[in-house]
Structure formats: C-alpha cells, structure tokens
C-alpha cells in the first residue's frame, strides 16, 4: 500500500469519525474510507448488549438479529477473538475486526468484500491501527448517545410536568403522555392503561390497539404496593400510576424479543412517577376549573362561558333590536396534524389559531373555544354582510399564518400552515332558543367542509 493510498484511507476514516451525525452516516463514511484500500460490497457493525448479552445491529439497536444462524456465526467469531492477539480475520470474502472497550470485546466490524478480489496482505499490517480507531469511534458514538438519552430523559420529565399548564382532561392528557414516553423508549412498544374505578379492570387508552392481550392478565397482579412488575424475563415491564396510594392505571413497555435493561427500567419508573403526579394535579385543577370561564389552552372563553354569553347577547339583541351574528369555525384536517406530528404540535396549532382569531376581532366581539378544534364567535351589533367580511378576514389570516414548530424537533419541518372552514349565521327574533343561532352557523360550517374546506358559507333557510 503506497503512502498516498494510505493517506487517503486515513483521511476518509477520520472524516467518518468526525462528521457523522448518525449511525447510518457513520457506516456510510466507513464504506467510503475502506473502498480506498479494499473492494467493499458493504460494511456492518455489531455490538454486544451489556445487559442481555445478545448481539445487536449497531445501525438498528432496537431490533434483534432475526437470523439465528447469523447470530451464532457472529457469536462464534466474537469468541474466537477472546484471548487472541489477532486484530482482523479473513473468512472467505468477509473481514472481521473486533471492537474493544479497554480489554473487553464489545462488538465486531464486518467488511463484506467482492468475492472475485482478495484483499492485499498489507491491509492486515495496518489492521491494529484501524481496530483501535474504530473502537474509539464506536465508544464515542455510544457515550454521546447516552448523554443525549440522559438529556432527553430530563426533557421528557419536564415536558410531562408542563402538560397541566395547557390541559386538564385525562382523555387529552393520556395520549400526550403515551407519545412522550414512546419517543423516549423507542425499542419497546408503550401502552397506557387506566383502571376503571367501578369495574376494577384496566382499559387501554393509548394507543388504539394492543398486540398481546396477555398483558391484561399481568395487569391483574398490579397493586398500589406491588411496585414495578417484570414479566417474560423482563420483556414486559408494568409501571404503576399512583395517586395518594390509589392505583390510577399503568404504563406498560412491551417487546416480544428483547428485555428492558436496568437503565430503561429506572427511566420508566421515574417517568411513570412524574406522570402520576401530573395526572393527580390535573384532577385537582379540573375541580377548580369547573366554574372557570376561560379555556386553559387558548385563553379564549370556554364552552360554558360561551353558553352564558349567548343567552346574554341574544336577549340584548332582541331587546334593543340590534343585529347579532355568530361564526362557527374549525381547523381543516386537524386530526391529521395530531396523528402526524403529535398532540403537542396540535396544541401549538390551536394556540396559534386562537391568537390569530383574537387579533383579527374587535374588542367587543366574543371568541370562544367551543371544543376540540372548533371555535365559536359572537359578533354583537354586526350585520350579516359585515360578519361575512370578518369571517373572510379570519380565514385569510389563518391561511397565511406560518406556525413555528421548530422546538418540537420534527425532522425537516420547522413550520406548519393550516386552514379553517367557516359558517356564519344571523340572529332572528323568531328563534325559540338562543342555541339556534350557533346551530345555524354550525350547519353552514358543515356545508363549507363538505364543499371543499378553507371557505366561508353563510347560513340560509
């Protein structure tokens, strides 16, 4: 191997170590480097899991090696390096290089070569240098990821604690908790269960389906004093959700192949405890907010307050013989936003839409969050033509609004755009009930959605 070839190889190897942002990039960089001195088909890295002692694909550590024959072969090669001074071994068209942590073997570099071209002997002369650098790079990757994992753990704890700043209903909180925990423990499926107080049984609340119904049987063993339950040699972990020593439900981590390691058990235990505190506080706040007038997430009037203002304004319009209009609007394809980006981004969208609505209205207009992604607006002293102009202004403003979601860390997406559909109605003194005003606006909203969305429809008999 001449000096120039060796220099280019080492340069590319160094770039793979220093520039790679993810495991796939790292392996791709190694393939580029080794192609300078070998006829490489592909490169794989395998690491030995320190808890389960199984061999994992470095690029996809959440998956077990499904080919048992391949796993046995790798185990055999790993064992052959124990106590050996060899830095590399050639087996037909494959070169194996051991990866070390100090004196302990923690993995293998597998270089699959073109079958027609054998490697030159001088490659094996530099194998010791290569082996040390690869070992250092893999360890550096793993320690960096461990640091990121610890950071993500504390971020998850903090985010769970912050949920009650915006939401108080369990039906809304629990899916958010599920998404947060699922994004943190990516090697296991996460399930959230709530215990039915009357029937004393567990109900799955997130996600929609469960892969192994046997989990319900394991849940029967859960009590306020049982602590964490591990089943199937640690492949299923059941973590209680408690409030004042009462069992609220459980977080379940499930993987049919790999068991939870010690770190994951500790992480999930702490996360479940924080989730329990959040659920408990949400219950307390719900009691306080029963008589409140504002929606916690958007700061607009809540549905209860809307009903009160509706009665007041219709009575005033009838008494003073002044026009009164109602706008009903909701966000187009909002479920898709939640399903694609998560409930936290959905909350961000709701807050931004509410902020835009408030900004575009007059001081005496009355905006409310009617429920979910639906908003109701009362426009006192406003004719139908004027209300239609307001509705069009709202629709256009929200269509142009760029919603920043950069803080949620969604790959390649920093902004979202949404649209709204709008229905408008006018109060008629002949109406028997005030509710008819917003019901007419709701009918117009339905027509707007059915006829293409992102439009304004005025109710007419």
Record the SSE blueprint.
Elements: H1 3-19, H2 23-34, E1 40-48, E2 55-57, H3 68-81, E3 89-91, E4 94-101, E5 104-113, H4 121-125, H5 127-162, H6 170-184, E6 189-195, E7 202-206, H7 214-219, E8 229-231, E9 236-243, E10 246-254, H8 262-289, H9 303-320, E11 324-331, H10 334-341, H11 343-360, E12 366-371, E13 374-380, H12 384-400, E14 403-404, E15 415-416, E16 420-426, H13 435-450, E17 456-458
Parallel strand pairs: 16-17
Antiparallel strand pairs: 1-2, 1-5, 3-4, 4-5, 6-7, 6-10, 8-9, 9-10, 11-13, 11-16, 12-13, 14-15
What does this protein look like?
The N and C termini lie far apart (88 Å). The strands form 4 sheets. A 5-stranded antiparallel β-sheet has the order 2-1-5-4-3, sandwiched between helices. Helix 6 packs antiparallel against helix 8 (262-289) and helix 11 packs across helix 12. It is built from 13 helices and 17 strands. Strand 8 and strand 9 form a beta hairpin. The chain is elongated, with a radius of gyration of 30 Å. The chain folds into 3 domains: 3-143, Beta-Lactamase; 166-289, GAF domain (Beta-Lactamase), CATH 3.30.450; 303-458, Reverse transcriptase/Diguanylate cyclase domain (Alpha-Beta Plaits). With 461 residues, the protein is an alpha+beta fold. The chain is 46% helix and 22% strand.
Features:
17 strands; alpha+beta; Beta-Lactamase; 461 residues; 46% helix; five-stranded antiparallel beta sheet; 22% strand; 3 domains; elongated
Q: Mean of residue pLDDT? A: 88
Anisotropy-based shape:
elongated
CATH class of the largest domain: Alpha Beta
Number of domains: 3
Major sheet description: 5 strands, antiparallel
Q: Give the CATH architecture of the largest domain.
A: 2-Layer Sandwich
The Cα radius of gyration reads 30 Å
Distance, first to last CA: 88 Å
CATH superfamily of the largest domain: Reverse transcriptase/Diguanylate cyclase domain
The total strand number stands at 17
CATH topology of the largest domain, by name, is: Alpha-Beta Plaits
Helix/strand class: alpha+beta
Q: Give the strand line-up of the largest sheet.
A: 2-1-5-4-3
- Beta-strand fraction estimate: 15-25%
* Count of individual helical segments: 13
Uncertain residue ranges: none
Helix percent reads: 40-55%
Secondary-structure element order, as H and E?
Answer: HHEEHEEEHHHEEHEEEHHEHHEEHEEEHE
